[in-house]
Here is the input.
Amino acid sequence: MHIPENYLSPSTCAVMGAVMVPVWRMTVQKMKMEISKEKMPLVGIGAAFVFLGMMFNVPLPGGTTGHAVGGTLLAILLGPYAACLAVSIALLIQAVLFGDGGILAFGANAFNMAFVLPFVGYGIYSRLKIRFSSQRGEYIAAAIGAYVAINVAALCAAIELGIQPLLFTDAAGQALYCPYPLNITIPAMLIGHLTLFGLAEVFFTTAVLAYIHRTSPELLANSQHYAWRRSTGKALYGLIGMLICLTPLGLLAEGTAWGEWNPSELAQLTEGGNVLGYTPAGFTGGFSFNAFFPDYSIGVLPEASGYVLSAVIGTALVIIIFKVASSFMKDRFNRPPLSRNANVR
Here is the structure.
């Protein structure tokens, strides 16, 4: 679902970026009211979960791949505004460091995965949760919210890609950017997300939620007052460490995600029995940015080792960013005093 460079016209990218500016501004304002200084590092840990979740590629018959996002999970744990900022930072690091998603397309990718996905998922989860009284019911609500949300986000990406050949063509009628219209992009994006990728999002959301219920239930209280516990740190960092070690499993999925091909791959693709046969002009003369570690590869390291090291770098960066941000925050919340008999760990 990461839209690469030059698949969207500069004007489309500008519009999507302009849409996200007030969203990010509102997000920051809401977080100042809802997230305490002590709780801010948890947003970084949530961003790390998102970053790692997107490294586990799932293969789809036909040679394409996809992945979970985790936006609904973060919205459940921290609220949709914190989830929006966490996913945005994760997407920015992916684009700049690893070339996963375009720099110009960052606004569009953030709109789909950092805005639409967590807000839709949380809206569905919060309405369904009140109908259930059991923990199992909460998991059902989270699963439905996550499944619907990732498909709505995929639909948004499909529309953004599919309108390009309708709006931007050269004198010969060839597309300047994404060459596939809506009748191709919508089915292509939704088939994968209605099946395996949607199920991957459900599994990731409910599995992590169940783990946190068992190890750190205080994180689900949605309280402004939060005190970091050593046991919470061990549980969360332990899960992050396990996910990092397992990231090479994402390399088992061969192929490229639909709509994320490089220009040479795009010219050779077949749709409806016909090879595209040309590279859109927007690709050959478009914006180019060389990521530091393209495709999560690092120098001469073996592919699996580079993937693991990329996971370490990405997770460390998002956690550090939010820890540094918390150091500049003023604690606006009056924390309740600890009782003399409080069990502090």
